[in-house]
Amino acid sequence: MTDRFAPAAKILKDHAYDSAKLIPILQQVQDEYKYLPEDIMRFIANELEISPAKVFGVATFFAHFAITPKGKHIIKVCNGTACHVKGSSFVINTVKDKLKLKEGQETTDDGLFTLECVSCLGACGLAPVMVMDDVVHGQITPAKAVEIIDKVISSEAKNAD
Amino acid sequence: MPTKNIEKIAKDYKDAYKKITGRVVICGGTGCIAGGSLKVYEAFQQEMEKRKIGFCLQITKDCHENYLSLSGCRGFCAMGPLVSVGDIFYTKVKPEDVPEIVEKTLMKGEVIDRLLYHNPVNNQKAKTVEEIPFYAKQERILLHDCGRINPEDINEYIAHGGYAQAKRAYTEMTDEEVCKEMITSGLRGRGGGGFPTGKKWDLTRVEPGPKKYVICNADEGDPGAFMDRSVMEGNPNAVLEGMMIAARAIGADEGYIYVRMEYPLAIQRVRTAIKQAEELGILGENIFGSGKNFKINVMEGAGAFVCGEETALIASVEGKRGMPKIKPPFPSQCGLFGKPTVINNVETLATVAKIMEMGAEEFRKIGTLGSPGTKTFAVTGHIANTGLVEVPMGTTLRQVIDEVAGGTTNDDGTVNKSAFKAAQIGGPSGGCLTREHLDLPLDFDSLKSAGAMVGSGGLVVMNNKTCMVNVARFFLEFTQRESCGKCVPCREGTEQMLSMLNDIVEGRATLKTLENLEDLAKAVQKASLCALGKTAPNPVLSTLKHFREEYLAHVVDKCCPAGVCKALARFEIVPSKCKGCGMCKRACPVSAISGEVGKPHQIDPKKCIKCGGCKSTCKFGAVVTGA
Predict the structure, then answer these.
(1) Residue A26 touches partner B, C-beta closer than 8 Å
(2) Which of A27, A64, A125 lies nearest to residue B387, judging by beta carbons?
(3) pLDDT interval class at B75 (50, 70, 90)
(4) pLDDT value at position B545?
(5) Which of B305, B471, B613 sits opposite A143 (nearest CB)?
């Protein structure tokens, strides 16, 4: 088994164990581990000689950091102003309904999807916008959103066979 | 390393450029890339290879045929992907169109009619950029080179006069003279506050050194605003040059660009520009032989709106939670790592070299007396031409909406100038402007007197089918979520305000709720620590002022006149209007609509999730929202 802490140790070394670089360190750690596991955050605190509370504080302050694992497919629905006035909340509600997400729940029970409502992707000309695994779909409607999710579900089902 | 001779670079570039026979520019801004412009770019390469037409992707002295490049955002996002071949300007180009463009336009100079911009107002086609009202009515100083030059080639920026002003500042001017030039120009910060830039620099200049910092605030968190993104994507070197001049003015040797991580392309282009500038010795040690050093670091934000506030941004660069501090001390005295720091926004910094080039006095002639220069607005929402618009300060709201951006649209996208209901300016911290403000000049002072603000320049146009209570709730939900939690008025106040607004949109409110909401909003405005909290109640207070009757409809009649608020809306099909085409049935994601072809359909209220899909699909206006 490879050392679970090795990638984090390398990232810390690259930043010269500088605690002012905590945010870039956490960003790279999250890219590597897909989220910020608690043991890794404790390790970072230890190496930087700061309290774990400080690391958790920063990790929970910024929206980009996730302290729980995310789903296999990431759906981002833009809820910036331009998308909102063009009906993105209808899309969000439909997607929530489709994925059977309860209030406050982001990742489906089977771990297949995570729904993120983001504030402005800067593609306001295409509003409303939905991003499925980094592919941008512009001028989305509730029906189109369901269609896109169904496609992913059926390709997942095929892969499972 | 000594700085390379930029005059020679400019001359070599221009000489090489003369040898090319044709130039194809494909918009590579975020909006056009999302619309597929990279596939168009690839299609051009394939097609030209197939036809054995010579082309290069970068200007070098060996180039002698066609030059194919991406550009930054051209601002006309609604019409993307955009392609220009010489002066001919094509909109909504698909990869399938490329063979025809190469054959007809590039090889023979013929114009392809169907790809030209069609002006819906006078029914004419526009062949060049200048013929399109969207561009013709703007005054593009800051955005002039965005979309014209290759943002990933520093040599083209230099050939267009780039870095000449930085050189002048470092070799011919004193720090005091640079500050004076900015003070004379009257430039005010484009990030929201409108503080005079020259004064800010001068205040930092007189602080003791030796260590000082310049920070470029590129944490453009206002949803619906993307001018900073466009500038970084389209002309990143202009931002770097502005930072260099600021560093010269205050005596800094290190700078940071703090970009939000939602802008990966902007981050990449800025990094490329920094790398190229370092290779030429423009950034680094002993710049232009002046003995002065300057380096720029890029820091990616981690998703917090409050980090647009300067003291919160500084905390975040230092690796802390992004929480604001009480001012004074101001960053000019005690900023990053406790050192004197200048923080300017992207648009402000990108304007600096332009001012030096044209001269402060010339710059003052543009715009109004109190707000000189131009301002970029990101016009979005129910508007014909979504995009980026640069106009002189003092242009009226009506001119921007109707003349430049083509007018307000109905829900189906058709232009209907009389459908204008309101415009939210300045994002979640701003206020809404109504019909009575249409002739208001857009500048710092007159907007402030109207209870709104320039802010970062987001301008969201809303038509008469918009529920203003819902819009106010939307903005408050945003600021509540982004409140950092440090001070009680903002943390608790916005939460309580949001819960009252939820009561209103869900039909539980009474007149007393409205009264409490207004009182609390005023308290939050007065007592919060930073600008986020102080301005968070603006959307609520301005909609309460201008659209009180809509609040009353929600509270008293328990009805959402626009049919947007889910709890108060009920979707129905009017049998007399329904043609039985079945469009709504297909649009319904939960199969709540039934009916035979050619006969009126019905919606099952038990299954309906009120997504509104049927209403936006119906061509006959048969789907209505009752209360």
Answers:
(1) yes
(2) A125
(3) confident
(4) 94
(5) B613
Of A81, A87, A123, the CB nearest to B616: A87
Q: Look at residue A86 in the predicted model and tell me its pLDDT.
A: 84
Q: Could B31 and A122 be called an inter-chain contact, meaning their C-beta atoms sit closer than 8 Å?
A: yes
Three-class SS of residue B208? coil
Q: Is the pLDDT assigned to residue A120 strictly greater than 80? A: no
A87 within a domain of the structure (yes/no): yes
Domain of residue A108, residue span: 73-160
- Over 50: is that where the pLDDT of A1 sits? no
Domains of chain B, with CATH numbers?
A: 9-135 (3.40.30.10), 161-363 (3.40.50.11540), 374-466 (3.10.20.600), 469-555 (1.20.1440.230), 569-626 (3.30.70.20)
* Tokens linked to B232: 């970084």
Question: Which A residues, 96 through 155, put their C-beta within 8 Å of a C-beta on chain B?
Answer: 97-98, 118-127, 129, 136, 138, 141-143, 145-146
Q: What is the pLDDT of residue B148?
A: 87
Looking at residue A34, which CATH number applies to its domain? 1.10.10.1590
The Cα–Cα gap between B2 and B319 comes to 34
Alpha-carbon distance B547 to nearest alpha carbon in chain A (angstroms): 17
| Secondary structure string (H, E, C) spanning B25-78 | EEECCHHHHHCCHHHHHHHHHHHHHHCCCCEECCCCCCCCCEEEEEECCCCCHH
Which residues 6+ apart lie within 8 Å of B8 measured at CB? none
Q: Note whether residue A36 is domain-resident.
A: yes
Q: Is residue B507's pLDDT more than 70?
A: yes
Residues in chain B within 8 Å Cβ distance of A118: 262
Mean pLDDT of chain B: 92
Interface test with B, best of A23, A56, A81 (most B CBs within 10 A): A81
Domain count, chain A: 2
- Do A153 and A78 share a structural domain? yes
This prediction's pTM: 0.90
Q: What is the CATH number of the domain that holds A133?
A: 3.40.30.10
Does the pLDDT at position A29 exceed 70? yes
Pull the structure tokens for residue B567.
Answer: 């709890």
pLDDT digits (tens, 9 = 90+) for A34-71: 899 999 999 999 999 999 999 999 999 998 899 988 88
CB-nearest to A61 from B322, B381, B428 is: B322
Residues A45 and A81 in one domain: no
Of the residues B27, B262, B588, the best mutation for testing chain A's interface (the one with the most A CB atoms within 10 Å of its CB) is B262
Residues A153 and A84 in one domain: yes
ipTM entry: 0.86
Instruction: Give per-residue burial for B320-355: e unless 16+ CB within 10 Å, then b.
Output: bbbbbbeeeebbbbbbbeebbbbbbbbbbbbbbbbb
